[in-house]
Amino acid sequence: METVDLIEITIKLMKKALYILSLIISLIFIYSCSEDTIDDTGFGTLTGTVVEEGTNDPVENARISTNPASSTVFTDENGEFSLSNIPAGDYSVEARKDGFLSQFEGTSVMANATVNVIFELQKETAGNKPPSAPVAVSPQDNATNLSIPVKLSWNSSDPDDDDMTYALELRNDKDEEVLIVEEITDTTYTVEGLEYNTRYFWQVTVSDGLNTEVRSQLYAFRTMDISSSRIYFTRIIGGNNVIFAIDNEGNEYQLTSSSNNSFRPRKNNASGKIAFLRSVGAQTHLFTMDPDGSNKRQVTSAIPVRGFNMEQVDFSWANDGTSLLFPDFNRLYSINATGGGANLIYQSQNGDFITEIDVSEDDQVIALITNNSSGYDADLFTIDFSGEVQEQILSNVTGALGGLDLSVRGDQLLYTHDASGFESGSYRRLDSRLFIYNFSTGQTRDLSLEKEAGTNDLDPRFSPNEAQVIFVNTSNDEISQRNLFTLFIERNNSESSENRELLIENAAMPDWE
After folding, report:
1. What is the model's pLDDT at position 37?
2. Model pTM score
3. DSSP H or E run through 439
4. Interior CA angle at 470 toward 246 and 242, to 5°?
């Protein structure tokens, strides 16, 4: 019994020892595994930079986050960020900002190490395509002889159907002036204020507001040459007088802008210039321009052109083209055609205003009309360039007097007179007629024998060959449309053989050189 008991006790002790040994081994194994995991995980640092693709400009305030989640930070002004003390492991890092496409980058964070990530963010519109380059529709490239204004048109399309706006750039071959028109929403644009006989270059830029602007090729056109036009006149547009030319085929060409009040065109063939009057603020001044309307230049400055009624006041070239004669109330001045050198020629002794002026072809005689401040009690006479009166033709005339033009030979003088003798505060004329005075005979002929009753003939000028007269005819109500007519003159008859012909409707203040 004692032996058996001893064996059982021994067996129990051995089992207990084995159990204890197994427990110790298990604890050692668990402890060993726990130490390996800590060593492998640890903590590391993730840094990076966010820039814009293509430009490499830093992207500020981009949101940086990870998956698995760690911290969330935002980039600084340099586009840089840093995530510290994040567990080592594999991460997907996201950079996000409004206006850009979000981007993900994979990386592994190592314990006690720093890893760096670079993001190049694309704009949200990165997939949007730009419009096509504009292509001219009209005028055709290198088109010539274009009338003014010129309507430009072009085509362009956008593959994403984005709204498009256009900018037009226009240059010329005469100076450095550049016209730029922006925010055009249509594919046409009418260009005002162009000059004749000028080559222009134009280019259109299109933008969809998302992509880089796209330019068209450079196109060109030339406006027509109107230097052969010989008749000039005015027409009221938008409340302003505007100067026009007309060619032999009846084509009209606008020479001055409707934004200015420009009137009384007077061509001088010797200088190749047109002089005219223009309102400048509260004053009126003399200007010159080329026959095509280019190279406008102000002549007077210190002394303005003044008279009793600027719609009636006229001036004259010296026919050699070097100077211009103009009135300043009761004083008559000459001034260089290029400006400066103003010289007093004549001053009325009774204070009457000088209204009409014309200089003879040989620059020896000046014809003048003077009147009181109401436009009446008029005198018509001639002086020389020293201011001495040569011949008194009419004195203290009752009714309106106007419209001077000397013949080439200086032997005849064309003028108008209101034969009704009517006078009023509004300077209304009831029966203004055309007359020719002959210096040799002292006789006067009425050219308005076929004038329609109730109308006025005004502002006459001889034709270049003096076979005709161009003039204005209009109703004597002073508010109706004015039209230009021509009539033929037979010099050898004591009376006029008249043949009136309508030349231009809605026109006034003619000149024919």
Report:
1. 33
2. 0.69
3. none
4. 45
Q: Give the position of tokens 């604890």.
A: 27
* pLDDT average per 10 residues of sequence, the chain (513 residues): 54 59 51 39 92 94 94 95 93 93 93 95 82 97 93 95 95 92 96 91 95 95 89 97 92 92 97 97 97 94 97 96 97 97 95 96 96 97 96 97 96 97 97 97 95 97 95 96 94 57 97 95
CB 431 within 8 A of CB 447: no
Q: Look at residue 20 in the predicted model and tell me its pLDDT.
A: 58
- Half-sphere exposure in the Cβ direction for 333 (13 Å, CA): 23
Sheet arrangement for strand 323-328: 316-317, 323-328, 331-336, 343-347
Which residue matches tokens 């090729």?
Answer: 217
pLDDT at 38: 31
Burial class (CB in 10 A: 0-12, 13-18, 19+), 386: exposed
- Cβ-proximal residues to 388 (8 Å cutoff; 6+ apart), any chain: none
Q: Please say whether the dihedral angle defined by the alpha carbons of residues 341, 345, 351 and 353, taken in this order, is positive or negative.
A: negative
Task: Tell me the residue type at 318.
Answer: A
8 A C-beta contact, residue 414 and residue 460: yes
Instruction: Please say whether the beta carbons of 64 and 74 come within 8 A.
Output: yes
State the DSSP H helix or E strand holding residue 28, giving kind and residue range, or none if neither: helix 2-41
Q: Which amino acid, one-letter code, is at 502?
A: L
> What is the rounded CA–CA span in Å between residue 371 and residue 381?
12
- Taking CB atoms within 8 Å and a gap of at least 24, the contacts of 496-504 are 496/445, 496/446, 496/447, 496/448, 496/449, 498/447, 498/448, 498/449, 498/450, 500/450, 500/473, 503/231, 503/470, 504/233, 504/246, 504/252
Q: Are 343 and 322 in contact (CB under 8 A)?
A: no
Query: What local confidence, expressed as pLDDT, does residue 125 receive?
Result: 73
> Which DSSP string do the residues of 354-381 spell out, in sequence order?
EEEEEE-TTS--EEEEEE-TTS-SEEEE
**Category of 238 on φ-ψ map: left (φ > 0), alpha (ψ -120 to 50) or beta:** left
Distance between CA 188 and CA 202 in Å, rounded?
13
